[in-house]
Amino acid sequence: MASRGGPRAAGTDGSDFQHRERVASHYQMSVALKSEIKKLIYTHVGIWLLLLAQMCVGHLKLLPHDQVAMPYQWQYPYLLSILPSLLGLLSFPRNNISYLVLSMISTGLFSMAPLIYGAMEMFPMAQQLYRHGKAYRFIFGFSAVSVMYLVVVVAAQVHGWQLYYSKKLLDSWFTSTQEKKKK
What we know:
25% of the residues are buried. This protein has one domain. It has five helices and two strands. The longest helix is centred in the C-terminal third of the chain and has 39 residues. A two-stranded antiparallel sheet has the order 1-2. By secondary structure, it is mainly alpha-helical. Keywords: Endoplasmic reticulum, Membrane, Transmembrane, Transmembrane helix. It is found in: Endoplasmic reticulum membrane. It is a multi-pass membrane protein. Its main location: endoplasmic reticulum. This is Protein jagunal homolog 1.
């Protein structure tokens, strides 16, 4: 068009290049979804670390059991839920579809399944607490079943949104793959 300091080409104001500088929508969506999934993964790591800390304190008897209760059975398999998050993070740099699919499948197995089992495992204790007001496990003065149900609800939402955004990201990557094949 024109050199840096020289005259412009006749009949142009210099703005006719803007149509070439737009980023394709699926690339914009990919970046936005990766950002959201990373936030959810970091939130998951925070929850995971809190559960790990509770398990370590309970087993190593660093605090009395009336302050920090022993972990429930569902918490042990939930520790494997860090693997899907790592697979998800590994899929981002090169848009690796297979890693993202493995992350989604293993999120269901290692994250959602233990949470569902945990809700069922703790249900009789929650019933006893709310019907009779009796709690036998405590975490810093709060009923352990109440605290763990709160953790289950928050973690289920985090993993649910993570699956939702991963599915949208997968669709976005398939769109870009299909467009590349057409060319």
